[in-house]
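TA notes, week 10

Several of you asked for a full example with nothing omitted. So below is the full record: C-alpha cells for the whole chain, then the designed sequence directly under it. When grading your own attempts, check the secondary structure regions first.
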C-alpha cells in the first residue's frame, strides 16, 4: 500500500480518501489502490474544499490537517494509511463518535494508544512505525 501511494505521490497525485474499500488485493496478491474519484494533483489550489465549502474524505481515516480544512498533501494519505494499518493489526475500529464532527475531533486531537497495548505480539519497530504514520503533525 505504501509503495502504491508513493507511486501516486511521485506523479503528483494525492488520493484524499484512503480507506479499506479503496484497496484491493489481486489473485496474485498485488495491492491496488482504487477510487481516485476525489484525488487531486499536489499543485491544485482547489484540493482542500468543494465548491460548497465541505472537506472531502471519510472521517474515520481523515488526516488532522484535512479535518482542519488545510490542503491535502502526501502526508495526508500516509496518515490515512496509518489508520488502516492500525485497524488491520489490532482489530481496533477507526475512531467512532455520535457525529461526524466527534470523529473528526478525535482525528485532530486524540493520541492513539500504541498498537502493542492491544496486541503485545506486534513487533516493536512495526508498532513504532504505525504510531509514526498516525502522528498529528
Amino acid at each position: 500500500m505504501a509503495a502504491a501511494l508513493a507511486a501516486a505521490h511521485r506523479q503528483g497525485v494525492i488520493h484524499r480518501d484512503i480507506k479499506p474499500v479503496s484497496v484491493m488485493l489481486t489473485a496474485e496478491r498485488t495491492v491496488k489502490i482504487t477510487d481516485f474519484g476525489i484525488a487531486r494533483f499536489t499543485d491544485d489550489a482547489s484540493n482542500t474544499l468543494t465548491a460548497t465549502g465541505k472537506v472531502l474524505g471519510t472521517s474515520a481515516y481523515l488526516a488532522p490537517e484535512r479535518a482542519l480544512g488545510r490542503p491535502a498533501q502526501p502526508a495526508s494519505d500516509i496518515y490515512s494509511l496509518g489508520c488502516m494499518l492500525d485497524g488491520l493489526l489490532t482489530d481496533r475500529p477507526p475512531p467512532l463518535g455520535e457525529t461526524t464532527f466527534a470523529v473528526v475531533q478525535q482525528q485532530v486531537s486524540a493520541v492513539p494508544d500504541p498498537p502493542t497495548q492491544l496486541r503485545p505480539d506486534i513487533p516493536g519497530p512495526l508498532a513504532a512505525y504505525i504510531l509514526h504514520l498516525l502522528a498529528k503533525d
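The mean pLDDT is 87. Use that as a sanity check on your answer.
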